[in-house]
Amino acid sequence: MEDINILLTTASNYCQNGDYKQGIHLYSQYITKNNQNPIAFYQRGKAYFKIKDYQAAQSDLSKAIKLKPDSAELFAERGLIYYMAKQQDAAISDFNTAVEMEPENPFRYASRAFIKDHMNDLAGAKDDYQKALELDPEDAISHNNLGLVLGKMGNHKRAEEHYKDAEKLDPKNFGMKTNNAKETPEVAPQPKPEPTPLPNIKKEEKVSGTANFGNTLKALISSSEERKEFWSFVKNKVFKATK
């Protein structure tokens, strides 16, 4: 088992250096020897995503989910792939599953809200951002994004309140970004199909034959990192009103 785990480490190193095709080749070699490791499918799926092979990425995330069906992170990751592949119904279904699996995680609602917003489900996006803020009232991004949604719904007064809350909580990113309530709200631009939402490929840890793949996978895509990567992706895609 230790010998084939070298393939995981080497594959990860290639991907870290931007050689995703060679990384995919090595992940594939590993999988032919051990097709019961969800981490291998997850990592290869990310590599496929980086080269915009969305179908292969979806397939690998689906295989990882089959092996680790209780991972909300995997459903959310696959949802992002579906969204970038313009399969919106499949995307929202996976985000729904992630929410159902982690109903107390505010990021699950906030990320689903972003997708709903861009599907023009403004009411659904508003509800999800409000739920995210109920669970985490100090989330500046959710305050800002809820303000954007409310502005598009015509509720400019409430939108201003959330912009101000975002500015108070995170003046570095949201300071001086208030919206003129009398102006027609601008629509947030659609994300460009760039392979950026998935977390960066990490170097593989040494995995023993009795390793708990679920815990290892959880460490690879921790909630904090997942959250950081998702909002890094949308940072320049979401309209932030300026004076």
TrEMBL record:
PROSITE patterns: TPR. InterPro entries: TPR-like_helical_dom_sf (IPR011990), TPR_rpt (IPR019734), Ycf3 (IPR050498). Keywords: Repeat, TPR repeat. This is Tetratricopeptide repeat protein. The keyword DNA repair does not apply. Residues 188-198 have a biased composition (Pro residues). Coiled coil: none annotated. TPR repeats lie at residues 38-71, 72-105, 106-139, 140-173. Residues 170-209 are annotated as: Disordered. Gene3D superfamilies: Tetratricopeptide repeat domain (1.25.40.10).
